[in-house]
Structure to design on (155 residues):
């Protein structure tokens, strides 16, 4: 009983932390105007040297999403929606399911394109672990959504 209550409290705190981080990151996507295409080219040329290839990839990746005119903003909106679902405590499982691809992508971005930022890699790794925790805690509900044995019986 005490163990179950403690898990619920931990889950509540973790879902609020993940939700708040997603909302914060999503709002940040709207803080600056998209750079002009020529500005991106000029910025990319600064890092077009063999020892700065990783920085060039990062610049091109982020600015490529911004240059589409919608993808960066769409990502921000999805982060805000997922964060609010997680914070709501009513739709936590739905928010965790929706947030998983976003959180994985953020973690992989930091793992492969920002290897020099160890603190951010650890932070995003913790967010990924929190997201996994939220899915594991509600695995019974998740399994009932993904796997319905009565529909898989062949008569």
């Amino acid at each position: 009983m005490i163990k179950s209550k403690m898990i619920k409290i931990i889950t509540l705190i973790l879902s609020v932390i993940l939700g708040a981080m997603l909302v914060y990151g999503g709002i940040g996507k709207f803080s600056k105007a998209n750079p002009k295409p020529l500005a991106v080219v000029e910025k990319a040329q600064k890092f077009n040297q063999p020892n700065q290839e990783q920085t060039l990839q990062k610049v091109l990746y982020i600015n490529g999403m911004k240059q589409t005119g919608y993808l960066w903003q769409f990502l921000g909106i999805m982060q805000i929606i997922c964060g609010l679902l997680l914070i709501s405590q009513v739709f936590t499982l739905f928010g965790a399911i929706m947030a998983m691809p976003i959180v994985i992508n953020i973690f992989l971005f930091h793992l492969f394109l920002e290897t020099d930022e160890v603190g951010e890699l650890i932070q995003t790794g913790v967010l990924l672990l929190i997201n996994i925790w939220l899915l594991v805690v509600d695995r019974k509900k998740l399994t009932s959504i993904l796997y319905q044995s009565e529909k898989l019986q062949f008569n």
In short: The mean pLDDT is 85. Helices lie at 2-28, 37-46, 53-67, 71-88, 92-112, 118-137, 139-146, 149-152. The CA atoms of residues 26 and 75 lie 7 Å apart.
